[in-house]
Amino acid sequence: MTGTVVVTGLGVIAPGGDDTEAFWRTLLAGRRSIGRIDRFAPDRYRTRLAGQVHGFHAKERVGSRVAVQTDLFTQFGLAASDMALADAGLDMAAVPEYERAVVVASSSGGTEFGQREIERLWRNGPDHVGAYQSIAWFYAATTGQVSIRHGMRGPCGVICAEQAGALDAVGQARRLIRDGARAALTGGTDASLCPYGLTAQLAAGRLYQGDDPARAYRPFAADTAGFVPGEGGAILVVEDAAAAAERGARQYGTVAGYAATFDPRPDSGREPGLRRAAELALADAGRAPGDVDVVFADAAGVRELDRIEAAALTALFEPYGVPVTAPKTMTGRLYAGGAALDLVSALLAVRDGVVPPTVGIGRPAADGRLDLVLDHPRRLAVRTVLVLARGFGGFNAAVVVTAPDAAHARAPQPSEGADHASIHRR
Amino acid sequence: MRVGRPRRTPVAITGMGVVAPGGLGVKGFWELLTAGRTATREISLFDASGFRSRIAAECEFDPRQEGLSPREIRRMDRVAQFAVVCTRDALGDSGLDLAAVPPERIGVSIGSAVGCTMRLEEEYVVLSDGGREWLVDPAYAVPHAYDYMVPSTIAAETAGVCGAEGPVALISTGCTAGLDAVGHAVRLLQEGSADVMVAGAAEAPISPITSACFDAIKATSPDNDDPAGASRPFDLDRHGFVLGEGAAVLVLERLDDARRRSARVYAEIIGFASRSNAFHMTGLKPDGREMAEAIRAAMDLARIGPDDIGYINAHGSGTKQNDRHETAAFKRSLGARAYEVPVSSVKSMIGHSLGAIGSIEIAASALALEQQVVPPTANLHTPDPECDLDYVPLSARDHAMEVVLSVGSGFGGFQSAMLLAKGGTT
């Protein structure tokens, strides 16, 4: 036990790729995976664009027995967990059963499954609610199913902090490893693109309204008009560094720092908590702002929230002091899955020495004073990354990941999907 | 208590707020429990005719009388109202001068299994016109619809009440959430992420959809002709749990800090652990193996042994399988001591409020320690040969005890155990 917690496996189900490398190629190609909602007819809703996962066949990915008793958010979590464990090459049988942990973020639970069952109840009566509603709808569904699937008998957790939740889950997974677990599955997924889910999201007043994918979700632009919702997410395998080294595991990086803060009451006149979360995570990692090679921003796409984030970053790093990116401009905001996906992208940036871009925002607002990685990936030796996330209602979280020792590092993958000529060097 | 290796910093419970069925505030709650009175009645919160189980333990809760403003009442689901009221009570009870604590050093950890389910359902019924329109009409959405979709708003509302700007999270591990949320808070205090944690859990699940989903799996009691006697943990004639609602919020501080300000210490939290059965989302194996492991792990952390435990506040839900499972877990983890130590379930009186009950039971356990009184298991008339421990039937018992074990078990296979010690004994 070293207290050092490393990432050894990644699994992604996201718009633009239902496996990790496919997703990464899409990001490096700078391709937007945002389009018109085709899960249902979205005409009557002011938001009709979303980042959807296409071609995901639940029965094939999780088995028909599990598929009928789970919502899509759990199916994404199960598929991503399978992928992450395979990627980590971790033989669970070799890990003592009570040292296998699961802690996953959930934002809105089994939204579509829940809508269907409430509909049955009110349309047809209480006898028509299915037996699986009780285990598919609640926020713990993914953690429970993942635990069962992989025989994880150690501590299990479920954290809800909307879009910030996945970073909190990773921070909690690190605690569990430090408290004696050997390996943990962590991260988050979300799938709330059903009519009721979308309607509720619209009520929060932060979604882009319109039909032009090129105008949708442009964080840090002066005329930003909200964000596009998305679905999917990522699951990561984290392990104690010594245990990982002992089994010869290849690492993506170290979860070096984590912190969470909450915003002051709106009437307090106090500064929002995002900068402090970043500072605390850096301090926790034993790193200074100058060590950070790139920041994966929360990038709310809401003018005031963008201002707050830009102010936090310029205060911490000086204006234009650090490359900042928001690849979520290609996927939309994935709620519980969003920050987990950013963490995966951050670790792949470390592996491959390339930063995925922020796409299609046009000209950033002048008052932001950020060095945004715009439209094309940027070649960069990435050793330290700061990932930021904010959850609706005042939640802030930050994670710092650092590069693994060369001896344990993953080999860089040639980015075949990316057009090399388009990769800008600075 | 055994003196051994140094254990983790003990954490003190210095304030308490409870909203529970059958009595107002902490005082009413404790009076009900020690009188052995039951608060299970016919459901009045909705028309339950046509449902298999038509009984529940409801709180006599008037948000206006509890001081909530008209806007707070409009904005918050009943579950958040419970949490906010308990938080105000707990802060007042703690005697803590909040103005003297930097907001950054105050954190929140709130548990809930099903979040804002009442409003989620009510709004859906309107939007879908009674379940008739899958493509729900957004024109009927209330402005706070998204607050109900993400349970994290319960923690955010709580943070607003106490001005917390430290780590804030909603923990949603189903029916162990109330224990896990407090366990999480203890961990944050021990690692120094906060100096004061407002921790607890809330649930307001008495709604058609929650009732229907437990009906569908026959988990709740159908003994509608005897509401007051329907929750019968450990009794041979038990037929399932009775749904409850409520909340408990605790003010937690490191013991040294509590002593420095001469705070009243209800009890100390000296150990917490959780494990998962990785077996079934709702089913339990009769051997109680993983719960026993959680109990052993908690005892290890607290550096105590079975003989130190003076009372077990059981999960005791009143389902056939739970009470057997739990009895086996106590025998497995405590050996001969299991037969000597009194065990009781307050769910016999206040029902099973899902995610909230763990925190409510921690409050009951702390009061039991402080008052040296064990609350009874009401309605236990006919012993079940498979449940052969001392369940303190019908009447409360004066009992000298230094340490209390409180356990929980929930959907997803989660098993949690917490150890509390009498204030001033460590």
TrEMBL record, chain A:
SUPFAM superfamilies: Thiolase-like
InterPro entries, alphabetized: Beta-ketoacyl_synthase, Ketoacyl_synth_C, Ketoacyl_synth_N, PKS_Beta-ketoAc_synthase_dom, Thiolase-like
Annotated region described as Disordered, given as residue ranges: 407-426
Cited PANTHER family: POLYKETIDE BETA-KETOACYL SYNTHASE 2-RELATED, POLYKETIDE SYNTHASE-RELATED
Superkingdom in the source lineage: Bacteria
Domain Ketosynthase family 3 (KS3): 2-403
Pfam family, one: ketoacyl-synt
Positions with biased composition (Basic and acidic residues): 417-426
Family: Belongs to the thiolase-like superfamily. Beta-ketoacyl-ACP synthases family.
Designated name of the protein: Ketosynthase chain-length factor
Keyword terms, alphabetized: Acyltransferase, Transferase
UniProtKB/TrEMBL annotation, chain B:
Family to which this protein belongs: Belongs to the thiolase-like superfamily. Beta-ketoacyl-ACP synthases family.
Keywords for this protein: Transferase
InterPro entries assigned to the protein according to its UniProt record, in alphabetical order: Beta-ketoacyl_synthase, Ketoacyl_synth_AS, Ketoacyl_synth_C, Ketoacyl_synth_N, PKS_Beta-ketoAc_synthase_dom, Thiolase-like
Organism domain of life: Bacteria
Coiled coil: none
Keyword Transferase recorded: yes
UniProt protein name: Beta-ketoacyl-[acyl-carrier-protein] synthase family protein
PANTHER family tied to this protein: 3-OXOACYL-[ACYL-CARRIER-PROTEIN] SYNTHASE, MITOCHONDRIAL, POLYKETIDE SYNTHASE-RELATED
NCBIfam families: PRK07314.1
Taxonomic path: Bacteria, Bacillati, Actinomycetota, Actinomycetes, Streptosporangiales
Ketosynthase family 3 (KS3) domain sequence ranges: 8-422
PROSITE patterns, alphabetized: KS3_1, KS3_2
